[in-house]
Amino acid sequence: MTSYGKVETAKLQQNLENQLDRLVEQLGDLENCKAELDAEEYEETKQETMDQLKELNDSLSKLVKGDISLISALGAVQLATQAAISEAFKTPEVIRLFGKREPKQLRERLSSIEQDFKLNKLSDEATSRQKAEILTALRQLGEQLSREELQFLEKHNNIANAFQNVEFVEVTDE
Q1: Taking a C-beta distance cutoff of 8 angstroms, is the pair 30, 42 a contact?
Q2: CA distance 27 to 84
Q3: In terms of C-beta density within 10 A (0-12 exposed, 13-18 middle, 19 or more buried), how is residue 106 classed?
Q4: Is the pLDDT of residue 4 over 60?
Q5: Which residues lie closer than 8 Å to 64 by C-beta, 6 or more apart?
Q6: How far apart, in whole angstroms, are the C-alpha atoms of residue 90 and residue 165?
């Protein structure tokens, strides 16, 4: 019995998600080790990673245009890649959850951030930035935001404005 490419499609999707995860993790590791690297080495490594993300995005664009059966799966990965390229998101975990289209986990991360803020584990600035990233990701995934969340985004619209340079592609499940 033939799979009509379903197995291959699943493998391709998994490989692309793994590559995105690897690159996002690489960005996270780079940020964590920033103090240990000299400025030139940090910038060079970051630029190489961003170039790899751009290459991944270019490949995804070609696949999205040429293979209708992969549009919805690749579209999510492409959006996450474009968000990383545009630096709309600074938090690797948010990029990963956005790329995998996991709004429930994004909501859990939001609760965790708010809890860390209450326990003085995060500064007000870090909390606001991460909360704005997550709310922006949720909105881009089509999730309903509360009035308070929308007001928060209005107040911190610099994150949402970072998406002005991202070209979003309409994705359908066909």
Answers
A1: yes
A2: 10
A3: buried
A4: no
A5: 70, 71, 74, 75, 78, 169
A6: 15
Which amino acid is located at 93 in the chain? E
User: Which residues are CB-neighbours of 128 under 8 A, at least 6 positions away?
Assistant: 156
Can you say whether the dihedral through the CA atoms of 146, 159, 65, 51 is positive or negative?
A: negative
- Rounded to an integer, the average pLDDT of 57-86 is 60
44: amino acid identity, one letter: E
pLDDT digits (tens, 9 = 90+) for 123-167: 988 888 888 888 888 887 888 989 999 888 888 876 555 544 444
Place of tokens 């930035």: 129
| Residue-level length of the chain | 174
Say if CB 129 and CB 159 are below 8 A apart: yes
Rounded distance between C-alpha atoms, residue 70 and residue 74, angstroms: 6
Residue 101 gets the label, from left (phi > 0), alpha (psi -120 to 50) or beta, of: left
Rounded to whole angstroms, how far apart are CA atoms 160 and 38? 31
**Percent of the chain at pLDDT exceeding 90:** 14
* pLDDT score at 81: 63
